[in-house]
């Protein structure tokens, strides 16, 4: 279907200049599969530093941005500011933003719309909690998240969706390839029914949650998994093997 494999590293609130220089060294040494798009989500204050160290073939993402261009919003960062210091992407709607900072589906939708309007590409995250999965609400939850997102996204060209089951994030409990594929596949069906066949065919859906070098290849072999959003392992040399999981 021609969906380019896309692997994001989400460094979350980790790293300092010295550590970042080390991680970048392993990325530069690679070698990285040229058929995979790579995006590094780093803390906003280091975007300009990381951009200066990474080759142009690797994208840089912020991990959050606000829904308007400027104003009295102490502590917030605008998409235009991320762009100004070298980012071309932003990760929005991560479960940590939803759960720890109380971000709602609609706020995330507004942030996505504004980031896209400002010319950033967006990795939009969705995913159910353990309680939701155990009460058989996985589809209901991810469909609701997608439905609100689709109110705000008119053109999906610059969007990647990251399906990250919350119970798999940072827990070492990766979804099995079958569990992940099952959700990716119903998301694609949802897109056919609610957006369009064309978007369903072209939208890249990443899997995120305890992806490692050991499980990446099997996950990558699933028909509807188009990449990964990687937390912990993106800070380690094994990230190179995860990027190359499609080889
Ligand atoms: P881990 O890979 O550490 O489980 O984190 C996943 C994640 O939250 C990526 O956004």
Description:
- The chain is α/β, with parallel strands linked by helices and 247 residues long.
- It has a single domain (6-243), classed as Aldolase class I (TIM Barrel), CATH 3.20.20.
- Helices cover 41% and strands 16% of the residues.
- It is built from 11 helices and 8 strands.
- The chain has an 8-stranded parallel beta barrel with strand order 1-2-3-4-5-6-7-8, surrounded by 5 helices.
- Helix 5 runs parallel beside helix 7 (138-152) and helix 7 crosses helix 8.
- The mean pLDDT is 97.
- The structure holds 1,3-dihydroxyacetonephosphate (13P).
- 1,3-dihydroxyacetonephosphate (13P) binds next to strand 8.
What small molecules are bound in this structure? 1,3-dihydroxyacetonephosphate
H/E order of the elements? EHEHEHEHHEHHEHHEHEH
Query: In terms of structural class, how would the helical and strand content be classed?
Result: alpha/beta
Give the averaged pLDDT, no decimals: 97
Q: Specify the CATH homologous superfamily.
A: Aldolase class I
Helix content: 40-55%
Query: What distance separates the N and C termini?
Result: 17 Å
List unreliable stretches of 5+ residues.
none
Number of domains: 1
- Our Rg estimate from Cα atoms comes to 17 Å
CATH class: Alpha Beta
Q: What brief labels describe this structure?
A:
247 residues; alpha/beta; TIM Barrel; eight-stranded parallel beta barrel; binds 1,3-dihydroxyacetonephosphate
Question: How do you describe this structure in short?
Answer:
The chain has 247 residues and is of the alpha/beta class. It is built from 11 helices and 8 strands.
